[in-house]
Amino acid sequence: MFRRAFWFTAGAAAGVWATTKVNRQLKKLTPESLAAQAADKAVEAGHRLKDFALDVKAGMTQREDELNDALGLTHDPDRPDNVTALPGPRRLRAIGPDSTTHRSNLSYNRNEDH
After folding, report:
1. C-alpha to C-alpha distance for 88 and 68, rounded to whole angstroms
2. For the range 11-19, what are the long-range contacts, defined as Cβ-Cβ under 8 Å and sequence gap of 24 or more?
3. Is the separation of the CB atoms in 75 and 84 below 8 Å?
4. In 3-state terms, what secondary structure has residue 77?
5. pLDDT tens-digit profile, the chain (114 residues)
6. What is the DSSP string of 60-109?
């Protein structure tokens, strides 16, 4: 008698467990659940892309600092945001017999070429 009661209880418990598992899986396959899972995956992918972009930006900043140090470019404390001090503009020289003549001293009329 106890054997029958034991196996009956074990069978009923196994049936309840299997039914619960099947119902959970069926709920996961409903369109609403699939849409929610896709949205969660999209949000997670967005967070990963944001983290990647921040890592790239940090790497770029680090490499820029290394290059500035290697090139001898210094930071000017008077400029905001630690803007790197760059060399001044170069003067253009006109091609001519006198290499010291600046372009600004030459007169040029574009109609003379035709």
Report:
1. 16
2. none
3. yes
4. coil
5. 888 999 999 999 999 999 999 999 998 889 898 999 999 999 999 999 999 999 999 999 999 999 988 888 866 556 555 555 666 677 766 665 555 545 555 566 666 665
6. HHHHHHHHHHHHT--B-TTSGGGPBP-PPPPPPB--SS-TT-BGGGS---
Total count of residues recorded for the chain: 114
**Is the whole-model pTM more than 0.70?**
no
List the domain boundaries for the chain.
15-71
Which residues, at least 6 apart from 106, have a Cβ–Cβ distance to it below 8 Å? 94, 96
Q: Please give the Cα distance from 3 to 11 (Å, whole number).
A: 12
For 88, 90, 110, the CA distances from 101, given in Å and listed in that order, are 20, 15, 19
